[in-house]
Amino acid sequence: MKEKKDRIQAIRDIIRTRDIGNQQELLDILLQRGFRLTQATLSRDLKMLQIVKMSLSDGGYLYVMPDVAASMQSNLTHHFVSPRNIKGVQSVECSTVLVVVRTKPGYASALASDIDQAMIPEIMGTIAGDDTILVIPRGGYNTNQVAEALVKILPRQK
Amino acid sequence: MKEKKDRIQAIRDIIRTRDIGNQQELLDILLQRGFRLTQATLSRDLKMLQIVKMSLSDGGYLYVMPDVAASMQSNLTHHFVSPRNIKGVQSVECSTVLVVVRTKPGYASALASDIDQAMIPEIMGTIAGDDTILVIPRGGYNTNQVAEALVKILPRQK
DNA sequence: CGATTCTTTGAATTTTTTTGCAGAAAAGTT
DNA sequence: AACTTTTCTGCAAAAAAATTCAAAGAATCG
Asked: Are the C-beta atoms of residues A83 and A91 closer than 8 Å to each other?
């Protein structure tokens, strides 16, 4: 069923590139682009895509992907966490869902091991390369909480 | 007005700790706890709190904070990017939050190194195994943008 | 205090979204 | 092909959520 796949893709595109405040608006655009569907189907599509309706500060509403919603959420969230003077650590950076720790070459796996040993509740696990550690937050914690916890336990430079 | 502040806090708590599928459910709990309000007010409160209604895989809906929505976003949606004829690369695939590059055995770490060297703004970092590279998008960029940037800089097969 | 302004709220809608159901279309089987 | 099963969709109704409007409650200011 090609029609549906195309439609789903189109919905993604439209949601990403335009401000959609309710399903009717989106429906109109889709109809205009030649898709044939009703609002009922659209509701089901949006549900399947896990698109959410978020309130805007200006009073309106906006349909967005969850990760966009999170990034729009009152942006108090800093992206870089000061690594202070932690041995081997170059930087700690948070994306929406993951924390990336950059280390000096060769340090990553040792540090990752330290992190794992610490059994931090916020951290589900780590994956280490040569100079990069990927830290996966445990469900319920956001990347900033993880970064805070991380910075606390990492060995300091003396 | 203290009443409102308390209520807002209570809503936060309830949303965090229980599964709320619609406003009536939440309203009932609030009434039970002694708050006096109607659905109209609740709608306004939820709007102000930027709480979103998200679809669950089991068919139901759930009111959650945006960051929780993002962390719940299922990664079933894999968009495949044609790797053209890039040396050693078997495939480049995007999930919602990560890009996975599959390579011929042994190529991964060299390629990951190339990627890191390129200092692509869209890319926060990479982690390489033997035949797989995990690419983490920097905040603000989506996986498709990363994949596009990647394909551009990767060495082509001659 | 009294007048004025701003905020909050409920009742009653209106608007928007979801869903039960049945039929149509596609995919899978024999 | 003929039959079965699964997926998809529209229609209409139900359910859920947002908003209009009027009024009650605070806050501000002279």
From this structure: yes
